[in-house]
Design goal:
CATH class: Alpha Beta
Helix content: 25-40%
Strand content: 25-35%
Length: 247
């Protein structure tokens, strides 16, 4: 099996800028250079994101950043290591894994595990991924008993943490930054096709060992949950960034 390489979507950093209204001359200059008019120009560099941890912190603070998600889409499309691993996956997603994505949480875990172990790969030592939810147990280390979904994108991870009122019920938001360390558990990388291509998902077979290294409070955030009918309830809960080792 070919040795996996680290997929670093921030090898080129993502920059967050503030903008100001463009002067008439700046609008004309922009038109000459780009062929269309812009009424805003970059003013000040607010943040330079060069790691999964920085991206997770940024996402908790901003809640929504479509520019970051689009940046990660482009980074994956152009990433040699990602495309090399995707070439090792089947041309068509195995039925069990397609059902896992579309029908979660109603899926066949034994079939999913079998197909991950058949078609999946060991990721590179040092690979970073994200998971949104709450820590799984009262222990700092444990072995998973079901497939584990992760993503390259902190916005997708945050939406997962909020899904169906999970953060509301848990009274907390948690984004886990997972570092693959001495990999022993295979993972399946979903490709840029299908109804859920936006999720940029990597799913690990059960049997992965997770170890919680650190938990850092970031800020309080507002979460919500749909109730019966068309109403929602809201409350403020703490949001944390948790560092995790995965093997």
């Amino acid at each position: 099996m070919t040795q996996s390489q680290i997929i670093n979507v921030f090898s080129t950093p993502f920059e967050v800028w503030s903008y100001r209204k463009a002067t008439q001359q700046e609008m004309l200059d922009h038109y000459r250079e780009n062929g269309f008019m812009s009424h805003q120009v970059k003013d000040r560099l607010e943040r330079r994101i060069e790691s999964a941890s920085a991206a997770a912190d940024h996402m908790i603070r901003t809640v929504v950043d479509q520019a970051l998600e689009n940046f990660i889409d482009r980074a994956l499309a152009d990433n040699f290591a990602f495309n090399a691993l995707r070439q090792q996956m089947p041309l068509s997603t195995p039925a069990s894994l397609s059902d896992y994505q579309s029908s979660y949480p109603d899926y066949d875990p034994l079939a999913v595990d079998a197909d991950i172990n058949r078609f999946g790969v060991l990721l590179a030592d040092g690979q970073y991924l994200l998971h949104g939810g709450c820590w799984f147990t009262d222990r700092d280390s444990f072995i998973t008993k079901r497939p584990l979904s992760t993503t390259f994108c902190p916005q997708i991870a945050l939406r997962s943490a909020e899904w169906r009122g999970k953060a509301y019920d848990a009274n907390r938001v948690e984004l886990m930054v997972m570092r693959v360390t001495r990999p022993q558990t295979k993972a399946y990388l979903f490709g840029p096709e299908g109804d859920l291509k936006h999720e940029k998902e990597v799913v690990f077979a059960s049997g992965a060992r997770l170890r919680r290294l650190n938990e850092c409070f970031i800020m309080d955030v507002t979460v919500q949950k749909a109730t019966n009918g068309f109403q929602t309830v809201k409350k403020v809960v703490p949001a944390f960034l948790t560092e995790v080792e995965l093997s």
